[in-house]
Amino acid sequence: MEIAHILFLGLAALAVVAAFNVILQRNPIYSAIGLIIVLCSLAALFLTLNAQFISAMQIIVYAGAIMVLFVFVIMLLNVRAEETKTDKQKYLKWLAAPLFLALLAEVMAVVRYVNLTPQPLPSANNVSDPRTVLGTVENVAYGMFTDYVIPFEAASVLILMAIVGSMLLARREKQEDVERIEKALAGQQEEEKIEEEVAV
Amino acid sequence: MVPLSWYLALSAVLFTIGVVGVLIQRNVIALFMCIELMLNAVNLSLIAFSRLHNNVTGQLFVFIVMAVAAAEAAVGLAIIISLFRSRETLNVDEADLLKL
């Protein structure tokens, strides 16, 4: 067994154990810690797949930004563990285990026939143009700003919309604003009624 | 080299764990974390295929998926905050009406 196999098995075992931790914990803060461990071990697995840039982004964006947001909201809302006492849909728990095994068996039956191994790539230190080696920053940037520039711009517009939308949703509305909006809506309805009468 | 099927198997296991989490968790923040887990499982198989074909497109797709996940987390957590303000609970079984 090569060292790469041992590394893969160790990281995969860590990821699976932490993923079970995410779904079985009752307190969301422990779930968040489990998810952070999954994200870090996946970042390490990305390194073994020649995706250095994506691996760094995984740590910075996922473990750094998204999980901080999660932990911030968990602590802001101060949820207690006894939230789970009213469980209306108990049957889902009994359904989950057989579904888990069935889905897993199905996927493994397909994966068993995949008989491919990636070929070794040249090191980025030994080539004249790093753009030709998969996963270097030059390689990713060249793809992103030539063939895939429109998806990239669409992603930036999406993030702008998410910023505006989340501020609008989480904002606490002032009482006078609420009254003003209700008055405006009432006025609009009256105008519509008058228009309908005119049309009749 | 590690065979491709190992990566695909790990990706499938993580995705399935995320699906089970969506079924058994009732806390809306934990449900969100299970969705992030599924997104990451798919990212792993995209990167594995990108490595197999020696083609950077899979990695770029993962980059876009990360942007979508960040946007989703921001908007979703804002919705969770406004839901908590109006209902004082995070249990998804309680949130079954559009109006308060």
Walk me through what this model shows.
The complex is a heterodimer of chains A (200) and B (100). Chain A contains seven helices and no strands. Chain A is mainly alpha-helical and 200 residues long. Chain A has two domains: 100 residues, NADH-ubiquinone/plastoquinone oxidoreductase chain 6, subunit NuoJ (Four Helix Bundle (Hemerythrin (Met), subunit A)), CATH 1.20.120; 52 residues, no CATH class. In chain A, α2 packs antiparallel against α3. Chain B is mainly alpha-helical. Chain B has a single domain, classed as Helix Hairpins, CATH 1.10.287.3510. Helices cover 78% and strands 0% of the residues of chain B. The longest helix of chain B is centred in the C-terminal third of the chain and has 31 residues. The N and C termini of chain B lie far apart (57 Å). The mean pLDDT of chain B is 89. The interface between A and B is large, with 89 and 71 residues.
Count of spatially separate domains of chain A: 2
Largest sheet of chain A: none
- CATH architecture label of chain B: Orthogonal Bundle
List the uncertain runs of chain A: none
CA(first)-CA(last) distance of chain B: 57 Å
Give a brief description.
The complex is a heterodimer of chains A (200) and B (100). Helix content of chain A is 73%, strand content 0%. Chain A is built from seven helices and no strands.
List keywords for this structure.
heterodimer; A: mainly alpha; Four Helix Bundle (Hemerythrin (Met), subunit A); 2 domains; extended; B: mainly alpha; Helix Hairpins
Detail the topology: elements first, then pairings.
The complex is a heterodimer of chains A (200) and B (100).
Chain A: H1 3-24, H2 28-48, H3 52-77, H4 91-111, H5 137-145, H6 149-170, H7 175-199
Helix pairs in contact in A: 1-2, 2-3
Chain B: H1 4-24, H2 28-53, H3 57-87
Helix pairs in contact in B: 1-2, 2-3
